[in-house]
Amino acid sequence: MRFIRLIFVAALALVLVAVALANREAVVLSAFPANFGQYLGGTWSVTLPLFLVIFVAFALGMLAGLIWEWLREGHIRREARRHSAEVARLEGEVGQLRQRHAAPRDEVLAILDEPSATPATTLPAVR
């Protein structure tokens, strides 16, 4: 399994390097449409290599998806916590019942609970 993971990481690195070498041109990345930034005071643009824009956009998309899924599955984590607390409570209760059941009992009750070794007497049949 480790070997397969190593091959996957090497192939991914090779693809990323190829994309970076093929997209080295500088591009202007603007935060707002044309001439709208002048109303906000500034150019609001930056010049970056295209591969960096691609990689950052991919990373931000992955981060947004991760946060979205974490928020969406919150009720599942809450339910699991509730079930875990319930299981812990029930395990504690079972432990207490086992201790109480294994505790020495009253001698009189122990004698009454034991099956008698002598057979019960029966009355003779009526003729």
The general outline is elongated
The largest sheet is:
2 strands, antiparallel
The number of helical segments is 4
Q: Got a strand count? A: 2
In sequence order, what are the helices and strands, one letter per element?
HEEHHH
End-to-end Cα distance, whole Å, is: 88 Å
Output the structural class.
Answer: mainly alpha
Strand order of the largest sheet: 1-2
Strand content: 5-15%
Flag low-confidence runs. Answer: none
Radius of gyration: 38 Å
Detailed description of the structure:
By secondary structure, the chain is mostly helical. 63% of the residues lie in helices and 8% in strands. Strands 1-2 form a two-stranded antiparallel sheet. It is elongated. It starts with a helix and ends in a 14-residue tail after the last helix. The mean pLDDT is 86.
Walk me through the topology:
Layout lengths: L1 H21 L3 E5 L14 E5 H23 L1 H29 L4 H7 L14
Antiparallel strand pairs: 1-2
